[in-house]
Design a protein that fits this description.
The complex is a heterodimer of chains A (131) and B (626).
Chain A lengths: L2 H15 L2 E2 L7 E2 L1 H18 L5 H30 L5 H21 L3 E2 L7 E2 L1 H5 L1
Antiparallel strand pairs in A: 1-2, 3-4
Chain B lengths: L4 E2 L11 E2 L14 E9 L5 H5 L6 H8 L4 E6 L5 E5 L7 E4 L6 H8 L9 H8 L1 H12 L16 H6 L1 H14 L9 E8 L10 E5 L17 H13 L7 E5 L22 H10 L2 E6 L2 E2 L41 H14 L9 E4 L44 E6 L4 H9 L3 E4 L5 E8 L11 H8 L1 E2 L13 E8 L12 E11 L5 E10 L6 E3 L4 E3 L5 E7 L9 E9 L2 E2 L1 H8 L24 E2 L2 E4 L2 E3 L2
Helix pairs in contact in B: 2-7, 3-4, 4-5
Classes of the chains: A mainly alpha (131), B alpha+beta (626).
């Protein structure tokens, strides 16, 4: 597996599953994809009904956290893929990364490691978060 | 409705009240009046923001709670069973459910799949992401300077207004069901609502309280009536002047986060208010909430009065509460604290030929969003779910923002515990607010009151006979009589396990306007001992040191100027006691020095958060008008 493919695979995994603490006055620990969902929901309301009062502030806060969490995911994917470059065997790199991603997804799907903040439950696993 | 009976206040100068409703006379009736403790600011699941915080208790549960019964609170399981229960140690005498009139119908539509609009994007977001929906909708409606109904409300918002009629009927039915019309007079309810204007994030909220069961057909909303003048006009048109027997007052609150917009002295076009507008305001706004969950609004912190730093929020706007670190007191807008507004009232009255727009009394309340009126004990504080800290998933270890507090109580001096008697007291401003404790405070003013009034066994009878009680305006001065003010305070007995501390002192706060039209304020120590050395054991929260079970003073103003309009109110202070956060931190086993800080209790080690408070009471003023 090429370094580029590893980087994108890891980035995709981290976007889906990396818990990222929200910057701002709320206790939220969710992956970038959740910030994207929240931003989409808020934007849909704003587009449909207008953005009065603090709504632009909320949109900005969610957008900021989405960008920051995506950046964190990208940096992490880049750093890990670069470190894995030390392994000479592309096949071994592929097995390692695929195994880690699968294990990570399995754990994220089973364990309530996310603090949803804006959700219907205080904590959730990945499936609950994306439901 | 026609007044059917007038109850005489025999042998006193106390004005009687008129009966406007059918009910049994109260067995306990005291012409010299008794203090009734209650809460005029209560939200239930019918308020959008309370519902968004997971509150499912309604008006009936709120009244049951106020009467001393246990009720459930969030988190609720999938079958609707509550995860926690709350109960007052001491029941209240009266309560008013004041759900937000705005969004009454929207809550119903988003809750009920049978109603059109249920599948709108707004309702979907509200249901799928409750806290996000809470912030978006609150911001869209309450904080807008040009509020509008959502699209799913249909043409002119008709669908949402119609859906709001059900909860409005429910509020009235609950008030009727829990009002004790028997001769026992155990508990009084009032129909009410909150008009929730917050233009640009600046709080201009008012709680409307109706005298009896005759109320507006529909509560006035900020969305349809987005100005305080509009609210007053609606109340006069649809209630006070409608000839139906309807009567109401409006209680402004949280002037501390109003950015100066709650007590305006000019119209939207900059024109100074006229005497007619001043009289309209004074007619409707006889009381102001001086303290509540979201801070104290008595006076501006500063060097003049070191006790003004009590539970103060130093942010300009309501919407800054969660995001701003605060400002210097002098950088905040004028007229955001009750004392400076009372002084401004004197200035305005001089300009307007005697019409004082700000001749209001004081009262305390909670602003609970847990349907928990009167839940004010510092050692049992669970937050009030009225801000960014949510109890939706259970009470957090640190239950609220550090700068918030459990709120206070409103105390009403009335002959009996009935709607007419309590409402008459609210109208004549014979009320006081406490920061939570059940202090009893009497305050009278008059010309040539006896110096030994405190020793008189008939203190109240003499007080009424020789002058006016708190909230009153002194009669014209006869000759060269001296103005004497008499204040008496009794400590909270702390019964049923409620924490209480001895009294420390009584102060009289005077505000006046000089010949040049400039306002002044001064605080006088009149009883007790400010340097009694009392404190509290932070490890156990047990108060230490000497104090008083009761205090009394008959005080003559040494600087009385017969030409200067003035007001006087009393402030009664307890010895120091633990603030709610100290109780929480002790219970959590926090030891900052040893680095033992359980998760969620990090704020326990924030040196900026006070650990002790001096609980207090503020009486309504007595005015002197030359």
């Amino acid at each position: 597996m090429s370094a580029r493919a590893i980087r994108w695979l890891l980035f995709g995994f981290l976007v889906l599953a990396l818990p990222f603490p929200m910057l701002g006055p709320f206790e939220v620990l969710v992956p970038p994809v959740r910030y994207a969902i929240l931003l989409a929901a808020a934007a849909a309301v704003a587009l449909a009904e207008g953005a009065a009062g603090p709504v632009p502030w909320i949109l900005g806060l969610l957008a900021l956290n989405l960008v920051l969490s995506l950046a964190a995911a990208w940096v992490a994917a880049w750093a890990i893929s670069r470190a894995l470059g030390a392994l000479r065997s592309p096949a071994l790199r592929g097995v390692l990364v695929l195994g880690a991603v699968c294990a990570g997804l399995a754990l994220a799907a089973c364990l309530p490691i996310y603090e949803t903040g804006f959700g219907r439950a205080p904590v959730a696993n990945l499936l609950g978060l994306l439901r | 409705m026609v007044p059917v009976a007038v109850l005489a206040a025999a042998a006193t100068a106390a004005e009687p009240f008129a009966r406007s409703e059918s009910r049994e006379p109260c067995a306990q009736h005291d012409p010299l009046r008794r203090p009734f403790f209650g809460d005029t600011h209560v939200h239930t699941r019918l308020s959008f923001d309370a519902w968004g915080q997971g509150t499912l208790a309604g008006p009936r549960e709120a009244y049951r709670f106020a009467r001393g019964e246990a009720i459930g609170m969030q988190p609720y399981d999938t079958r609707g069973r509550p995860g926690g229960r709350i109960q007052l140690r001491r029941p209240l005498d009266y309560a008013v459910v004041t759900d937000h009139s705005d969004l009454l119908g929207e809550v119903q539509i988003c809750e009920n799949p049978d109603l059109p609009g249920h599948d709108s994007i707004v309702c979907r977001v509200v249901r799928g992401f409750p806290m996000l929906g809470y912030m978006l909708v609150n911001g869209h409606v309450y904080s807008s300077e040009e509020p509008t109904r959502y699209g799913f409300c249909g043409i002119d918002g008709g669908r949402c207004i119609e859906a709001g009629r059900g909860p409005w009927r429910e509020i009235q039915a609950a008030a009727e069901a829990y009002y004790d019309r028997s001769s026992a007079c155990r508990f009084t309810t009032f129909v009410g609502y909150e008009w929730t204007g917050m233009p640009g994030g600046n709080n201009v909220h008012r709680n409307v309280v109706f005298r009896n069961a005759v109320v507006q057909d529909y509560p006035t909303t900020y969305i349809e009536t987005p100005s305080q003048e509009g609210l007053w006009a609606a109340l006069e048109r649809e209630c006070l002047d409608a000839g139906t027997g309807c009567d109401a007052i409006a209680i402004p609150h949280n002037s501390n986060v109003s950015n100066g917009l709650l007590f305006t002295i000019a119209g939207a076009d900059g024109t100074p208010i006229d005497a007619s507008q001043a009289r309209t305001r004074a007619r409707l706004e006889t009381l102001v909430e001086v303290t509540q969950h979201k801070g104290d609004s008595e006076c501006r912190p500063g060097a003049e009065d070191e006790l003004c730093g009590y539970e103060t929020l130093l942010v300009p706007r309501m919407m800054d509460l969660a995001t701003s670190s605060g400002r210097a007191p002098e950088d905040l807008a004028p007229r955001i604290f009750a004392r400076e507004v009372l002084t401004e009232g004197l200035v305005q009255a001089r300009r307007l030929g005697g019409a004082n727009p700000f001749q209001f009394g004081l009262i305390g309340a909670t602003d609970t969003h847990l349907a928990a009126p009167g839940m004010v004990d510092e050692d049992q504080f669970r937050g009030h779910a009225a801000g960014p800290v949510s109890s939706r998933f259970g009470v957090p270890p640190y239950p609220d923002l550090p700068q918030f507090n459990p709120g206070g109580l409103g105390v009403v001096w009335a002959e009996e515990n009935s709607r007419d008697a309590l409402f008459a007291a609210m109208r004549r401003r014979e009320t006081y607010g406490t920061s939570g404790p059940r202090l009893t405070v009497r305050f009278f003013g008059g010309w040539d009151q006896p110096e030994d009034l405190c020793e008189a066994p008939d203190f109240a009878a003499r007080g009424y006979a020789g002058g006016v009680p708190m909230g009153g305006e002194l009669p014209p001065r006869n000759g060269s009589g001296a103005l004497r003010l008499a204040v008496w305070a009794l400590r909270d007995p702390g019964d049923r396990g409620a924490p209480s501390a001895p009294l420390q002192r009584i102060q009289i706060v005077k505000g006046w306007v000089d010949a040049g039209g400039t306002g002044h304020e001064r605080v006088h120590e009149v009883a007790g001992d400010a340097a009694n050395g009392a404190d509290v054991d932070l490890a156990t929260c047990v108060p230490r040191g000497a104090g008083f079970d009761q205090l009394c003073a008959a005080w003559t103003d040494p600087d009385f100027d017969p030409d200067a309009p003035a007001y006087y109110y009393a402030r009664v202070l307890e010895n120091p006691s633990c603030r709610w956060n100290q109780w929480v931190c002790n219970a959590g086993g926090v030891d900052c020095a040893a680095g033992r800080v359980p998760d969620g209790l990090e704020a326990c080690c924030d040196p900026e958060v006070p650990r002790t408070i001096q609980e207090r009471a503020w009486t309504s003023p007595i005015w002197y008008v030359p």
